Each structure stands twice: as C-alpha cells, then as structure tokens.
Amino acid sequence: MNLDRRSFIGGMSVLAGLATTSASAQMMPRSEPPKRYPDEAWKVLDDRFRKYMIGNTPLQRQWTGSLWAEGSAWNGVGRYVVFSDIPNNRQMRWDEVTGAVTPLRVTSNFSNGNTFDFQGRQISCEHSTARVVRYNWEGEPEVLAASYDGRPLNAPNDAVVHPADGGIIFTDPGYGSHWWYEGNVRDLELPTSVYHIDAQSGALTRLTDEIFKPNGLCFSPDYRKLYVADTAATHHPEPARILVWDVQENGRRLTNRQEFTTLAQGFHDGIRADVDGNIWAATAFGGEGIDGVHIYAPDGTKIGQILMPEGCANLTFTGKQRDRLFICGSQSVYTLYTAARGAHLA
Fold first, then answer.
1. Distances from the Cα of 116 to the Cα of 133, 135, 167, 201, 269, angstroms
2. pLDDT digit string, tens, across residues 248-258
C-alpha cells in the first residue's frame, strides 16, 4: 500500500481527533438534565432552616440498583459510606473519592443498620440471624447480641455507640422477621425494645419496651439525649413518631420519656443530629411532598424538608467536615451538600 505524506498526515489527524474525542468522553460527567439553583429539593418551613441551605448545590443521585437501601454509616478513614441493600442480602460501599458504588459484603445476613465504633470497627444489625455483630480486624463478624432472657432477639435494626465506654445501644423492632423478603418469617418471642450492650462485659440490658416499633436512633450532640424513631404505623393503629429520653450512666439507663414529634402521614426511619441539635429524619411512605428528609429544631418544630423523588429510609453526614448528606432512597442513594455539620462520625 502506497501512502503519500498528505494522506499520512490526514490519517494521523483523524486518529488524533478520535483520541481526543474518546478522552473527552471519558472525562465528561454523567449526563443529567441541568438544574436551576436553588435546587427545588430545599423546602423552608421556618426561617431557622435557611442557615443550613446552600443555594448553589444540587441533589445528586449517586447510584441506583437497590431494592430497599438502608443503614448508611460513614467511615472517615476509608472515606466511604457502607449501606445495606436488605432484600438483595448485601452491603454496599459508596466511595467518596470516585463516586463508585460497589459490593462490600455478599451475603450480609440481610443486614440493616450499620455504624462504626470508636476503634473504627463496623457494627451491623442482621435480620436473618437476629443478632448484632462487630467485624474484627480480620473482617470476621463477632456476635455481640443474639438473645435476651433465653429467647432470640426479634431482628435488630439500628445501632449507635457511646464514646465514654464504647457501649452500644440498638433497636429491635422485628421487621426482619415479618417477611422472607428482608430476612426470615418467625414469631416474635420478645417485646419490641431498645437494648444496651456493655462494651466490657458484653452484658445485654433492656432499656425500654415502651415503644411500638423502635427503628432509627441517634444521640444528641452532647450524648445526653437519645432519639428513637417509632415506626408504629406499619403494624399498629398509632402514628409514626420520634421519642426522646434522657441518657443516664453513659447509656445504661434511659429516663424521662417524651414525645419529640408526631408524623401524620408516612413515617420517619433513620435519624441523625447535627452540631446545633437539629434532628434530620429520613421519611418514607408519605407520598410526594412528604417523602425525603424532615428537619426538626431541638424544640421539636419542623423547620424544613428535603423533597425527594423516592421514599427515604436512612441518612448520614459524610466528608471531612461532615457537611455532605448521604441519603438512602428506596432504590437509589443520593448526596446533598448542606451548611449543617453532622454531630457524630458515623
């Protein structure tokens, strides 16, 4: 084959153009419709909420592909969020650096809530085995709680850790025992309760059973209060609510039970506090205009919402400043930068 100089240069130009086009295509962000700022996801109900809004940031769907995304927890060392896709029996990991979502554990015993202790070890609430486990340094699960008073737990749901002594508080509503879809089908042998695990002795103490369906939970910024979402409406003729107790003895006792807020439609699931003591509550099954995140001032007044296209089950603050909200939607996960800062690491 004979190629003159002009043909050769022309061919190389075409190849260079193709290479440039290919490189540009690889560098282009995911194709999404542009959004006008401020994002319509922000909804102000009280002027106190305006200080937590950022006008030039979008609600971003990072990934879709779950059946029911749950149990998000931030790992600051690894710069990732672990979350559960319960019906698919797996834990997933969202990488803050790359934005990639990849499997972390398959299978996961239909795990729900996750958190990290102050040694960086992951704690998970498992539905099908009805136990709370902690992954040791080798990555193997150590069973922290599986029974109480000689009877198996219902199906632990969510957990938090107290910094003073590493004690763990978890909820046990039994959702993983109602359907094969999220665990097993079995009769509940214990009242739906909130428990404490002593970090030194491993002793399990029931803190309260005065709650219909204890679900998501979080401490106040100073660890003096414990908030627990009661998703009573799923199985009882009661409204969904958030209850709050005073924390005694680093979480070994709860006193002064009060109703923090009641939700007329839908229910609150996972909850988190920011450094100002506001409670950010993931909300689902309320429909358009309700599903998303509801934000409550410390006095219980709803001051704002983040309107979402899907019902939301859980959320956590991420990033070095803990100012980026990671939200578990039903089938997707989302992020939104805020002017708030999460009160706690996980």
1. 11, 10, 12, 19, 19
2. 999 999 999 99
- How distant is the alpha carbon of residue 41 from its chain centre? 19
HSE-up of residue 192 (Cα within 13 Å, Cβ side):
21
In the chain, the largest separation of any two C-alpha atoms, in whole Å, equals 91
In the chain, what are the domain boundaries?
A: 41-337
* Separation between Cα atoms, residue 336 and residue 261, nearest integer Å: 24
Reduced to 3 states (helix: H, G, I; strand: E, B; else coil), residue 190 is coil
pTM: 0.91
Q: Which of 169, 171, 167, 170 is nearest to 199 (CA)?
A: 167
Residue 87 near residue 181 (C-beta atoms within 8 A): yes
Q: Are 291 and 284 in contact (CB under 8 A)?
A: yes
Edge to edge, the sheet with strand 302-307 lists 42-44, 302-307, 292-296, 279-284, 267-273
Q: What is the pLDDT of residues 207-240, one digit of tens each?
A: 999 999 999 999 999 999 999 999 999 999 999 9
d(CA 113, CA 73): 8
| Angle in degrees, CA 159, 153, 116, rounded to 5 | 20
Please state which CATH number belongs to domain 41-337. 2.120.10.30
Residues 273, 52: contact at Cβ < 8 Å? no
Q: Which two tokens stand for residue 57?
A: 């940031």
* Pure H helices in the chain: 5-27
Q: In what order do the strands lie in the sheet with 101-106?
A: 69-75, 80-85, 90-95, 101-106
Under 8 Å between Cβ of 109 and 117: no
Q: Nearest CA to 260 among 295, 284, 290? A: 295
Give φ, ψ of 260 to 5 degrees.
-80, -45
User: At a CB cut-off of 8 Å and minimum separation 6, what does 91 contact?
Assistant: 82, 83, 84, 85, 103, 104, 105, 106, 108, 111, 114, 124
